[in-house]
Automatic annotation (TrEMBL):
PROSITE patterns: HTH_TETR_2. This is TetR/AcrR family transcriptional regulator. Keywords: DNA-binding, Transcription, Transcription regulation. The lineage of its organism: Bacteria, Bacillati, Actinomycetota, Actinomycetes, Streptosporangiales. The keyword Transcription applies. PANTHER family: HTH-TYPE TRANSCRIPTIONAL REGULATOR BETI, HTH-TYPE TRANSCRIPTIONAL REGULATOR RUTR. Pfam families: TetR_N. It comes from Actinomadura montaniterrae. Residues 30-49 bind DNA.
Amino acid sequence: MSVSTSSTKAEIIRAAERLFAQHGIDGVSLRQIGAEAGNGNKSAVQYHFGTKELLLQAICEHRLPDIHERRRMLIARYRPRDLRSWVECYVLPLLEQGEREDSRYLTFVSMLRHHNRQDVFRRLPEEFQASTREFGERVAALLPHLPEPLREHRIGQVVSFGVEAASDRERARVNGYPVVPFALHVADLLDGLLGFLQAPASPAALAALEDASPGTTWLPYL
């Protein structure tokens, strides 16, 4: 791949991420993305990515290597054994990504979630899926007081809460709204996530669990 081609694809990916984050997955055409990327060729996006589906996947694959490398560094540094450390190693890179001036990735991921597009994550390379599975397994082992499938559901909710908190803050910063200092944002969110995970299942929840139909918890691979 030439430098020019690589640069063009990267510009298209960043433009698509911005537009999808702003207007939603169904609110943007490939032609609009090409124009936002500064490409006069109306077919440039289709030439480089083929379809919108492949472009959605390309955005994830553009951002995830840095996020996953940051997770690996945190795990190597902290050697997590307790629940808070595992949650921090997984969630902190997402929150940090939301602070980047050149990124709208967390808002984009939030849009994918709201459009029920888990298929995009399921097509990602195995290394990203394995990372999320490991997180789920490590945290599940530290929550023996919760029965399944409630335990799996809570872990999925924690990932969702982290994504939504980061995307809310990302949107606030982009629009010039005040936000709390980042260190406070991280510490307070971790406190809330840990409290949610560790809370005992109430009699009402256990009774509802008996009547619940089997379902599938979506853990996005991010």
